[in-house]
Design a protein that fits this description.
- By secondary structure, the chain is α/β, with parallel strands linked by helices.
- The chain has 2 domains: about 325 residues, 3-Layer(aba) Sandwich (Rossmann fold); about 140 residues, no CATH class.
- It is about 50% helix and about 10% strand.
- The protein is built from 24 helices and 11 strands.
- The strands form 4 sheets. Strands 6-4-2-7 form a 4-stranded parallel beta sheet, with helices on both faces.
- Helix 3 packs across helix 7, helix 18 packs across helix 23 and helix 19 packs across helix 20.
- The two termini are about 30 Å apart.
- One of its GO terms (molecular function) is 5'-flap endonuclease activity.
Amino acid sequence: MPIRALKNFSTACNWPLASLNNSKIAIDGFWFIRKYFSALEINEMMCSFEDYVTRQLKGILGKCKDIQFLWVWDGLKYKPEMKDASSELEREISFLCENRKLKFGKSIDVLELFVTPVNNVLTKYGIEFCRAPYGAIAQIAYFYNNKCVDYIFTKSDVFLFNNVDRAIIEFDFKNNSLCFFDRNEIEKTLKIKKHVFKLYMLASGCEFSPTIPEFSNEFDNELFREFFITKVFKNDSVPSNFGAIKAFYTQNIVFCRQIENGLYFHKLHPIMSLNGKIEPVENFNTHVDMVSLFGIKLPVSFYEALFECKVQPIGISEYVFNQSYHSKSEEINKIKDLTADLLNYRLKNKSDSNFILDIIKDELGLKTDHDKEQERTLEIAFLHFVKNTKNVCTPLINCIVGKRALNENLHNLEANFELKKDDFIMFFRLREYVNWYKIFSLFYSEFEKTISNYSLFDFSTKFCAPVKNTGLYKSFVAKFNL
């Protein structure tokens, strides 16, 4: 979530968008979708996804001749999720089935649906895009600090990164205007000193840390400021660092750890550097366990493929934070066996119609009825996923059709069958499965090392390996004049 202390700041768009002509702007992709994309109708998702995306992006597409945009997607999750991601997905699927439209909440599985169609539209208009190794917000802050872009649009949490003094918080494409937040103005308005700024923002609650317990339910800026400055910081009588919070909350070890982790999340956040390395956004020496913050480090070639949007992080975040994958031999062997089966199918073009379905059911626990027509549909959907990287609609349609002929007129879809929750859940599970298939197929030998001895890929400030094949990466850097 954005910084809570800035929640009530005015976001009136008084700055003309035309004043940014001939500049470069980095856009936080998922944040833009959450803020500006209208609810997606089920028929649009099935029949005209890219047309829908084009309409939602018309504000940017209409300015792309005057302004150079760089669209940045989130990559892997950068902290263990306390909430059950599957329950969030189920809530959004339930809303979709009941209301025949999709809203964009917190489920990253739903947001990932937009990556391929958005990239296709951006490509048509000559707009560059990439995926950050982890948070887009950190990658955007890095681009800004290295003067690769002139302006940035993302969550207000970006002010926690060093040297980020200004950010676009709101667009008003109807009136061709925007709203800037300026760090100096924020400090003046809140009457806080520069050395207090980061801890003040972290303690108020943000993307990287929770709100201090006293204000977690009801937040008031004036009361919060009075409490934080006079009681926690004791009017600067305590050194202006984490020690002030640690001294005040000596009995609340969990909260202290969360705030401390918040400090490290934005200091050590891995980014793709201009040298083609996965390294912390700041040159910061520490003995902090980065694996606890970002999970295990994956093969370098994976990050390169991720940056170029060749693979998706679906399901991978759970893997990097799930120690059972690495500590239990049973789990390790299961992954290796599954990978070998997948490679066997890809390399030998195995045609057994039950082969794919058996793996899906047995290895992933997918429950499907023993219905030949449904199983055939599931198999076709899998093949579409593997071979069709352009059209996300086709595998979705083939997943949910089930009891109708596959060659039936698509535009009569709504009238001919009822969409069910289980059908959509099957689609999302299948998509995760196919993503693993692609990743294991591309990086089997390197992932085998990770699975066998994941300590080889531990994060550390001393282990910043460059990507292996930097041709496309260098081309991207050159094309965008980074």
